[in-house]
Amino acid sequence: MNSHVPFQIPLSVGLRDDARFENFAAQGNELACATLKAASAGEGEQFLYIWGADGVGCSHLLQAACHEAQPNRRQAVYLPLDELKPMGPESLDGMEHVDLVCLDNIQAVMGDAKWEEGLFHFFNRIRQEENTLVVAANGAPRQLAINLPDLASRMSWGIVFQIHPLDDDFKADLLIKRAAARGIELGEDVTKYLLSHASRDMADLFTLLDRLDQASLSAKRKVTIPFVKEVTGL
């Protein structure tokens, strides 16, 4: 582990405890997950870029990488740039000394000249330190509204992965199996309703299922569409 670490992380961002590789449905994204897991251990590529639409799990994967770094005795930090944006790129000062830096929602600061220049210099610093950088966005590098050509070239330094969404049949199967493991009989109609009205992110869907499980036990009622509406307001 690198001993030259910043004195204070600029933003206190807690990792979701359930954001782990073990509970990420990797169907169609197996290579991306394996590459990220290796990066968490300091192996493979120094720079990775993942992208996908909202709800496919990019944030989950970045946080999973940070969790995975801990047993490997590597310091890791997860930084969502949509939240960091008001603090300016100075918030990245010293981060190049962290073993693994995961920058989420990088599209949020594109088009901002100060941020673009700051990221350009940060990319150079972390490369010089030979630490690992993982970036996530809602589009491929060429799709981002980057004004600084040198930064645009940095975005494609390493491997770029698109994170593909799970199809609804696979999601439904996962929900039904998860529910059955909790002793909940989840009907096909309820499953379709959840997939149509709730978040598309599997971690969010599992959290919602946990909530329905607790409410069902408390009320001693079956999980039906009316019950889902009553508990969640969906």
Q: What does this protein structure show overall?
A:
- The chain has a 5-stranded parallel β-sheet, with helices on both faces.
- Mean pLDDT is 90; it is low at 1-12.
- It is 43% helix and 11% strand.
- It has helices at residues 30-40, 58-69, 81-84, 113-129, 149-154, 168-181, 188-197, 202-219, 225-232; strands spanning 47-51, 76-80, 100-104, 132-137, 159-162.
- It has 234 residues and is of the alpha/beta class.
- It contains 9 helices and 5 strands.
Helix content: 40-55%
Tell me about the biggest sheet? 5 strands, parallel
In percent terms, what proportion of residues is strand? 5-15%
> What's the alpha carbon Rg, rounded to whole Å?
20 Å
* Termini separation: 46 Å
How many strand elements?
5
Number of helices: 9
Order of helices and strands: HEHEHEHEHEHHHH
State the main characteristics.
5 strands, 234 residues, alpha/beta, 43% helix, five-stranded parallel beta sheet
Q: In a nutshell, what does this entry contain?
A:
43% of the residues lie in helices and 11% in strands. The protein is built from 9 helices and 5 strands; from the N terminus they run H-E-H-E-H-E-H-E-H-E-H-H-H-H. Helix 6 crosses helix 7.
